[in-house]
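Intended use. Records like the one below are meant for learning the mapping from a protein sequence to its folded structure. Do not use them to infer anything beyond what is encoded.
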Amino acid sequence: MSEAVFTHYDLSLIRPEFDSALTDLIIELDYLRKKQLGGSTHPKVFFQLKHIFHTLESVGSARIEGNNTTIAEYIETKLDGKQAFSEGIREIQNIEKAMEFIEENIKDYPINKLFISEIHKMIVNGLTPPPAGEGDHTPGKYRTHNLRIQKSSHLPPDYIHVEPYMNELIDFINKEDSPKYDLLKAAIAHHRFVWIHPFGNGNGRTVRLFTYAMLVKTGFNVNVGRIINPTAVFCSNRNDYYDNLSKADTGTEVGILDWCGYVLTGLKDEIEKIDKLSDYQYLRKEILIPTIIHSLERKYITDTEAKILKKVVELQRIQAADLKELFPGKLNAELSRQIKRLIDKKMLVPESDGARKYIIRFDNNFLLRGIIKSLGEKGFLPIKD
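Structure written out for the chain above:
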């Protein structure tokens, strides 16, 4: 690779031709953004899936940077409850916490220097600074030294120019342009952030969260029945990610449009794929029933528990009376005790506070491994272990 060099180019909103494939992509994504998700999957079940995808997003983002923790290893830390984790595990936990921070605050706060600083502090929290680890010597603060990006022909700007470049970027994303440019701006801003490389370390993890924040801010609302998983666009093939970043590094209109096409194509594919989970018939047949079968085969659950859970999945919500055909002759009190055992083991949860109808819960030691396995077999995992 030739010696890395810095080449300035102006930050601007590039407008694709009306009849281009990129414009078609923007129109399709805008439709998905506005589409009302009236899916048949119970909101509480879908919310559990969202938490699983947060985990997958966090593992994927860390893996791009060389973290070798597998999905299975990270899932085990969630199940065993131990606190003595490796730095690799803590790095992923930090990303998950930052995603929660974004969702809790993005509606009420602008994406500004303070917001970005807070994300960076969260993702490097408790990690050893380089060269030994993935932390940073100055969490939340722009770098005060020059650096190079490994395996890149782009040299980030001199550290004295980081602040003005970042101010320009923040002004760019907060400028009131037509909503039809929101997705283009998110893609362009992602590259510009990497191009600036404002922090001493953790820029990749921060920029992917920055992109997540922009998507949520611009209407891909994850709190009303949608899951977005932008890191899946970047981590499924790291070489494609870096190759397309390199195209945009040229600063040419063609290079930046190619980058935008790469980002938006991946985003559309991911949204359409994950939206399938809002169709309960699909979720039941392809994910939940295989999960119960897997858990029974591995003896994580008993035959009786599997029988009850299959009934829950069949009806999506159950009450004690629904178990009578499974246990003929049993008194209502015994049926209620069967349900309580599953509630105590966190395999069932009341549909709402105080309700006597129950839905499946799978964030537990008995079902979570099976859910991950089923999602993986159907192509929903952004990375392969």
